[in-house]
Amino acid sequence: MGESILNDKRILAVDDEPDILDTLEDLLEDYSGLVLDKAQDYETGYHLIRSWTYDAVILDIMGVRGFDLLNAAVHLGFPTVMLTAHALSSESLKKSIEMGARAYIPKEKMMDIAEFLEDVLTLEHSSNLRRMFQRLGGFFSEKFGPQWQKGEKEFWEQVETGNYEPEPVILRK
C-alpha cells in the first residue's frame, strides 16, 4: 500500500475465532510497518491492553467479554472498534456507542475494516460515528427492521448527525 494513516500503527484484535484474526491479519498485511497483535481470549486481550499502547483496538463482543475489554481500552484512551456477528443487535450497537466505541462493524462488513480504521484514526469521535452511520445505516435498518430507532429517536438522531458525545468512562473491574 502507498501512504496511509495505517502505516506504522500498532493495532490489537481480540476475537475467539482464529479465522477472524487471520482474516484481519490478511486485510492489514500490506500496510507498511503495521503491527497487529492478536488475542483469542479475554485474559490475553486484557493483558495486552494493559501492557502496550495501541493506535486502535478491534474487539469481538461474544466469547472474549468484549464489553469489559471495551471499557478497559476506552479508559486507556485507545480508539476502539467493535466487530461482531453473534451480538449484532440494536441493543449491542447502542451499548457499544455509549461505552465509547468509535465504530460497530458487522463481521460480514469486515472486508472494509481498513476504511473504518482510517476513519477512527483521522476523525473526531462524533464525526466518526456519523461516518459509520452513513456507511452502515441501511445495513442496520435491514438487519434490525425499519423501526429499530423508534424508542430511542433522540439518541440515534444525535449519533447520526455527529452531535453525540459519550459520557466519560470509569474503569470497572
Report the major sheet: 5 strands, parallel
Inertia-based shape? globular
The strand order across the widest sheet is 2-1-3-4-5
> Strand fraction band?
5-15%
Strand runs, count: 5
What's the mean pLDDT score?
93
Radius of gyration: 15 Å
Structural features, described:
This protein has 173 residues and is α/β, with parallel strands linked by helices. The chain is 46% helix and 13% strand. It is built from 7 helices and 5 strands; from the N terminus they run βαβαβαβαβααα. The chain has a 5-stranded parallel sheet, sandwiched between helices. β4 (80-84), α4 and β5 form a beta-alpha-beta unit. α2 packs parallel to α3 (66-75) and α5 packs antiparallel against α6 (125-144). The longest helix is centred in the last third of the chain and has 20 residues, at 125-144. The chain starts with 9 loop residues before the first strand and ends in a 12-residue tail after the last helix. The model has no long low-confidence stretch (mean pLDDT 93).
Brief summary of the model shown:
With 173 residues, the protein is an alpha/beta fold. It has helices at residues 18-28, 42-51, 66-75, 90-98, 113-122, 125-144, 153-161; strands at residues 10-14, 35-39, 56-59, 80-84, 103-106.
Structure keywords:
single chain; 173 residues; alpha/beta; 5-stranded parallel β-sheet; 7 helices; 5 strands; globular
Describe the protein's topology.
Elements: E1 10-14, H1 18-28, E2 35-39, H2 42-51, E3 56-59, H3 66-75, E4 80-84, H4 90-98, E5 103-106, H5 113-122, H6 125-144, H7 153-161
Parallel strand pairs: 1-2, 1-3, 3-4, 4-5
Helix pairs in contact: 2-3, 5-6
